[in-house]
# Entry
Amino acid sequence: MDLAVAHIRIDGERCVSCRECVEVCPQTRDSQYPVYAWGEDGLPRVANPESCIRCLSCEAFCRARAIVVDSEDGQGWRMPGDPRAETKCRAIF
Ligand code: SF4
Ligand code: SF4
# Structure
Protein backbone atom coordinates (compact mmCIF):
# COMPACT_ATOMS: atom_id res chain seq x y z
CA MET A 1 0.00 0.00 0.00
CA ASP A 2 1.37 3.36 -1.06
CA LEU A 3 1.30 5.70 1.91
CA ALA A 4 2.95 8.66 0.17
CA VAL A 5 1.39 11.97 1.08
CA ALA A 6 -0.37 13.75 -1.74
CA HIS A 7 1.28 16.85 -3.12
CA ILE A 8 -1.45 19.38 -3.77
CA ARG A 9 -0.62 22.52 -5.71
CA ILE A 10 -2.99 25.46 -5.91
CA ASP A 11 -2.35 28.18 -8.45
CA GLY A 12 -3.43 31.33 -6.65
CA GLU A 13 -3.27 33.30 -9.89
CA ARG A 14 -5.96 31.11 -11.46
CA CYS A 15 -8.15 30.60 -8.39
CA VAL A 16 -11.45 32.50 -8.42
CA SER A 17 -12.21 31.84 -4.73
CA CYS A 18 -15.37 29.83 -5.42
CA ARG A 19 -14.71 27.44 -2.49
CA GLU A 20 -15.78 24.44 -4.55
CA CYS A 21 -12.64 22.50 -3.63
CA VAL A 22 -13.38 22.92 0.06
CA GLU A 23 -17.00 21.87 -0.44
CA VAL A 24 -16.36 18.74 -2.50
CA CYS A 25 -13.38 17.37 -0.58
CA PRO A 26 -14.65 14.50 1.58
CA GLN A 27 -11.56 14.79 3.72
CA THR A 28 -12.28 18.42 4.45
CA ARG A 29 -16.02 18.11 5.09
CA ASP A 30 -15.83 15.05 7.31
CA SER A 31 -12.30 14.92 8.64
CA GLN A 32 -10.98 15.90 12.02
CA TYR A 33 -7.87 16.97 10.13
CA PRO A 34 -9.23 18.65 7.01
CA VAL A 35 -7.07 18.77 3.92
CA TYR A 36 -8.19 22.27 3.03
CA ALA A 37 -8.59 25.36 5.11
CA TRP A 38 -9.78 28.73 3.94
CA GLY A 39 -7.15 31.42 4.08
CA GLU A 40 -7.68 34.99 5.16
CA ASP A 41 -6.50 36.00 1.70
CA GLY A 42 -9.63 34.43 0.20
CA LEU A 43 -7.80 31.44 -1.20
CA PRO A 44 -7.82 27.79 -0.16
CA ARG A 45 -4.70 26.46 1.44
CA VAL A 46 -3.55 22.93 2.11
CA ALA A 47 -3.59 22.39 5.86
CA ASN A 48 -3.35 18.60 6.25
CA PRO A 49 -2.20 16.92 3.03
CA GLU A 50 -1.76 13.61 4.85
CA SER A 51 -5.56 13.38 5.08
CA CYS A 52 -5.97 13.35 1.30
CA ILE A 53 -7.30 10.08 -0.13
CA ARG A 54 -6.54 11.15 -3.74
CA CYS A 55 -10.11 11.02 -4.93
CA LEU A 56 -9.27 13.94 -7.28
CA SER A 57 -12.67 15.57 -6.73
CA CYS A 58 -11.12 18.94 -5.99
CA GLU A 59 -9.05 18.82 -9.16
CA ALA A 60 -11.99 17.73 -11.28
CA PHE A 61 -14.45 20.28 -9.88
CA CYS A 62 -12.15 23.29 -9.89
CA ARG A 63 -13.63 25.51 -12.59
CA ALA A 64 -10.42 27.50 -12.85
CA ARG A 65 -8.24 24.41 -13.25
CA ALA A 66 -6.12 25.77 -10.46
CA ILE A 67 -5.50 22.50 -8.58
CA VAL A 68 -3.12 19.66 -9.30
CA VAL A 69 -3.13 16.65 -6.98
CA ASP A 70 -0.01 14.62 -7.51
CA SER A 71 2.65 12.62 -5.77
CA GLU A 72 5.40 14.57 -4.14
CA ASP A 73 7.92 13.64 -6.82
CA GLY A 74 5.55 14.82 -9.56
CA GLN A 75 5.46 11.40 -11.16
CA GLY A 76 1.85 10.73 -10.20
CA TRP A 77 0.27 7.43 -9.23
CA ARG A 78 -2.25 6.97 -12.02
CA MET A 79 -1.97 3.70 -13.88
CA PRO A 80 -2.80 3.22 -17.58
CA GLY A 81 -6.54 2.66 -17.83
CA ASP A 82 -7.23 4.41 -14.55
CA PRO A 83 -10.42 6.41 -15.25
CA ARG A 84 -9.09 9.20 -13.06
CA ALA A 85 -6.31 9.72 -15.60
CA GLU A 86 -8.93 10.61 -18.21
CA THR A 87 -10.45 13.06 -15.75
CA LYS A 88 -7.07 14.67 -15.33
CA CYS A 89 -6.61 14.93 -19.11
CA ARG A 90 -10.00 16.60 -19.47
CA ALA A 91 -9.11 19.00 -16.70
CA ILE A 92 -5.92 20.01 -18.47
CA PHE A 93 -7.21 20.16 -22.03
S1 SF4 B 1 -12.24 25.16 -6.68
FE1 SF4 B 1 -10.48 26.11 -7.75
S2 SF4 B 1 -11.14 28.21 -8.17
FE2 SF4 B 1 -12.53 27.39 -6.60
S3 SF4 B 1 -11.61 28.01 -4.61
FE3 SF4 B 1 -10.81 25.96 -5.11
S4 SF4 B 1 -8.85 26.34 -6.18
FE4 SF4 B 1 -10.01 28.25 -6.22
S1 SF4 C 1 -8.00 14.58 -3.94
FE1 SF4 C 1 -9.95 14.25 -2.82
S2 SF4 C 1 -9.34 13.96 -0.67
FE2 SF4 C 1 -7.58 14.87 -1.74
S3 SF4 C 1 -7.77 17.09 -1.40
FE3 SF4 C 1 -8.80 16.61 -3.37
S4 SF4 C 1 -10.98 16.26 -2.88
FE4 SF4 C 1 -9.78 16.14 -0.95
